[in-house]
From TrEMBL:
SUPFAM superfamilies: HAD-like. GO terms for cellular component: cytosol. Pfam families: Hydrolase_3. The lineage of its organism: Bacteria, Bacillati, Bacillota, Erysipelotrichia, Erysipelotrichales. NCBIfam families: Cof-subfamily, HAD-SF-IIB. Keywords: Hydrolase. GO terms for molecular function: magnesium ion binding; phosphatase activity. This is Cof-type HAD-IIB family hydrolase.
Length: 265
């Protein structure tokens, strides 16, 4: 019996065409919560930088920074995986040498170290319903001396990234745009955060349905007892899914929740 529903954000809950969460999705999730199901968001975003629209869905838990942070709906951090001091210095040194855009994601805020104009998502997020509050300019580049971050956002020449970090044993650069990367410890993904949450709640994988559309959802979908791929998902995600629903902008979430018996039509 399903007890927990976990959703990727962009391309799953959030329609990238209309830049909104479809009303059918909002209603279906509210009904599922009323029916006693636990609602979890899994995202590369920070738990404090979801934005008003996602916060309005009232998630019970958040798997943030691609699984490196687990928080509850009130923002209390339940678990986190920090980069090591050596890993942080390696990334800082690389970004200095290549004049890369660099932002560090800490448990409290996202600190912008250098070349904010190169970070393609920064200004759009500030101008969105996320706002500017989660972001702090840090030209002194010293925030990591107080405590350690969980992830970096790096905008650098892909050839330089490949030359330095290809097959790195400790760090992985997850590409999200032409020259943009989320940098996390190798082996960190949404499934790590999901497993930690399940352990804390005492649930099994068979009590979980996971919804996703892209490569960074694959480990999470494999862990869940029920894997749902969006109609707009990449082929690799569709191939491992137990159920392929319609696209996000075609009521995909609502259709899937009806199919799974979580809500009524």
């Amino acid at each position: 019996m399903l007890k927990l529903l976990v959703f990727d954000v962009d391309g799953t809950l959030y329609d990238l065409k209309s830049h909104e969460i479809p009303s059918s999705c909002q209603k279906a999730i509210a009904q599922a919560k009323q029916n006693g199901l636990i609602f979890v968001i899994a995202t590369g975003r920070t738990h404090y930088g979801l934005g008003a629209a996602l916060n309005a869905l009232n998630p019970d838990y958040i798997l943030a920074v691609n699984g490196a942070v687990v928080a509850d709906g009130q923002g209390r951090v339940l678990a986190h995986h920090d980069l090591t001091p050596t890993q942080v210095e390696r990334i800082n040194d690389f970004c200095h040498q290549t004049q890369a855009g660099l932002a560090w994601k800490f448990l409290d805020h996202c600190y912008i170290y250098q070349y904010p104009e190169k970070i393609d998502w920064l200004q759009p997020q500030k101008e969105s319903d996320i706002g500017s509050e989660p972001f702090i300019d840090c030209p002194a580049q010293d925030r990591h001396q107080l405590d350690l971050p969980q992830s970096a956002s790096v905008h650098a020449d892909p050839k330089a990234v490949e030359a330095v970090f290809n097959k790195d044993p400790e760090l992985v650069f997850l590409r999200y745009s032409e020259d943009g990367y989320d940098v996390v410890q190798r082996g960190m993904n949404k499934a790590v955060g999901l497993q930690e949450l399940l352990d804390q709640l005492g649930f099994t994988c068979n009590e979980v349905a996971a919804f996703g559309d892209n490569y960074n959802d694959i480990e999470m979908l494999k862990l869940a007892g029920t894997a749902v791929a969006m109609g707009n998902a990449v082929d690799e995600v569709k191939q491992l899914a137990d159920y392929v629903t319609s696209s996000t902008d075609q009521d995909g979430i609502a259709r899937a929740l009806i199919h799974l018996g979580c809500v009524k039509a």
